[in-house]
Design brief:
The structure is a single chain. It is built from one helix and four strands. A four-stranded antiparallel sheet has the order 2-1-4-3. A hairpin with a 3-residue loop joins strand 3 and strand 4. It starts with 9 loop residues before the first strand and ends in a 15-residue tail after the last helix.
């Protein structure tokens, strides 16, 4: 039986969201380091690949529901 090593797609307080292993995200290769950090008391970090997959999934969901996403910048610039 082949063992597949976890790619650590994201971290919740330094713990991998897939395998549960405690990992220092700064020691990972560049392609696995976080591209998106969400804070709210605790930190959730996603790798570039995982962030792209989440975004693609959300866009596809919005298209299926025939809805648009409105994005406002910090200075209220409409994007």
């Amino acid at each position: 039986m082949d063992v597949i090593e976890c790619t650590h797609p994201g971290f919740f307080s330094s713990m991998c969201v897939r395998c549960g292993k405690k990992v220092d995200p700064d020691t990972l290769p560049k392609e696995q380091q976080s591209a998106l950090t969400i804070s709210g008391g605790v930190v959730l970090q996603l790798s570039v690949k995982e962030a792209e997959q989440v975004q693609a999934s959300k866009v596809e969901s919005l298209k299926k529901m025939r809805k648009l996403a409105l994005v406002l910048d910090l200075d209220h610039t409409l994007l």
